[in-house]
Specification:
The chain has about 120 residues and is an alpha+beta fold. It has 5 helices and 3 strands. The chain has a 3-stranded mixed β-sheet. α1 packs across α4. The two termini are about 20 Å apart. About 20% of the residues are buried.
């Protein structure tokens, strides 16, 4: 599949807007970022939560850099055959990475079908 960076970012924003309010309302000091690939250049990683989960925070507040949820464009495009599949995969990636913000680990996400 082929899609330029701007179109992919718009798709990510659309999918983020469709997530339930209960899921996104609790996100505090989090930014969403779209990048082409992970630092290692691989196509294996679709997204990354870069931050400190709510369950691990002690004192957290003013002056803290925002946590980041990164969605990687090229791995998604490599994995998906059409737009519908791409939307589904981006949706799953967003849910997965937001779950990490709330302290849900990969094992539990696998159990729930989000990994």
């Amino acid at each position: 599949m082929d899609m330029d960076a701007d179109a992919f970012e718009s798709l990510v924003v659309d999918e983020l807007d469709q997530l339930p309010d209960e899921m996104v309302d609790g996100l505090d000091n989090v930014v969403f970022v779209v990048e082409d690939r992970p630092e290692d250049g691989s196509l294996d990683l679709l997204g990354l939560y870069d931050g400190l989960a709510l369950t691990e925070r002690g004192r957290y507040g003013m002056g803290e850099l925002p946590d980041r949820i990164i969605v990687y464009r090229e791995p998604h495009l490599d994995r998906c055959a059409d737009l519908a599949e791409l939307r589904d995969e981006v949706h799953t990636t967003l849910v997965h990475e937001i779950a990490h913000f709330y302290g849900i680990d990969d094992d539990r996400l696998h159990e729930l079908g989000w990994a």
